[in-house]
Amino acid sequence: MIELFLAACLSIQEPEVSVQPLQFSVTHDGAAGESIDGRLYIMLTKGKVPLIGGPNWFNPEPFFALDVKNWSANTPLSLDNNVDAMTPMSALEDGSWKAVAVFRELNDRSKIAVTGGLYGDAVTFEGSGTDAGTIAITVNTLVPERDWDPHKNLRLDEKPSAMLSEFYGREVLHGSCVIVPDGYDPNREEPYPVMYWIGGFGSDHYGGRYMKMMFTASDYDDQICRVILNAQAYTGHHVFADSANNGPRMAALLQEWIPYLEETYNLGGSAEKRFLAGHSSGGWTAMWLQVNNPDEFGGAWVLAPDPLDFHYFQTVDLYAENANMYVDSEGAEVPLARMGLKPVLLYKDFVSMDDVLKDGGQIGSFEAVFSPKGEDGRPVQMFNRETGAVNPEVIAYWKKYDIRSIIEDNWEELSPKLSGKINIIAGGLDTFYLEPAVIALNNMFEEKDFDAMVRVIENGDHGSVFRTTVIREMDEYIANKLDLPNIQQKTKK
Asked: 156-175: per-residue pLDDT in tens?
């Protein structure tokens, strides 16, 4: 009997616990339309709130993404281990997580969470990529319209572009913030001098309020109008360069938008009263527009620009035989960013994040501008994402956007037209290794005894070159060209 009892006990087994790998089931409520197209992101954090605008470049937390088409309201969409990810969903470490789903609509903004898109409340779950099960999320909140508080000196202006709308087959807007001085008179006989400002990657014309604060440090702030141009596109920063993927951005600016702005606000009207300035990607833009249109602008101020010479694409010579974005000729890993002398971000790691972002990421932004359009309708990738190997055929196409090459190849024609119009400032320890291209360009200028101002600030980083003292210097440059009295001179009168 005892044996029978023991046998019966042993035959009683614990109920099986079903362990399910992590996946997300996401629905939308139709707030953005009954059937929507775009890209869906799942942003995770172990902190308080997931970032819905995109990951932190230097410390990205896990996130996943999937392109969606004809996604119907209240129809669950499954995101599992097969979606785009920096590391597979199955590799998510165990812990207490918060997840937010963000739907990004196809529009002309480079950010994840933009007007027209959707997001949902954060959902908390416990577990890892192998055992957390299915997490249900609903995106049901429209990303609100951008806030814009009226200001007596600011004019927000947005208008459809005929040229760009035709290229995309949908409405595309020009956008600017016009900053007018105190005492501005739109009807005065003499048009105001104008500085066209282009911000860095991810910025747009809504930053006009901040820029107004920067410009008030100038002794000429009451005499110069500023126009903050919007260089955002779905693909990132279009840098106002005509391209196969972004369309006729420079042509639309020069033929549509600048004529409209100058007529509407009594600005510029001639190269002598029309100037360019920008920082980072905007610095590259200012240089690009000046070099390609030397008779249209009176001078450019170029701060910490993206690579002006593709022999120095950060730390990689794109023209070198066997060029590689991930490892150098000695086999060492290629950094993309540093703090002081210390590398803090590797190119390969950054690319793994950037490719999950897809459209709107920095690397993808370069390719959208510089690369041809592939058979799939997307920009051709400049390098192999697995190995880092640079594609020399693509680089041959890129050369038409190499500013140093453009200047050198057209020296006889361009040098007299650009003399005295080029002003470049970079940090000697630029965060993204951008100063070597500036130094190389300056070496060429010095060899040719060319009239340009190029300054590399010892120990300066990417952001430190953009400060009020430089704003003052820009305005003094304009004032000297146009013989403008400063505030103190006017007060004495």
From this structure: 999 999 999 999 999 999 99
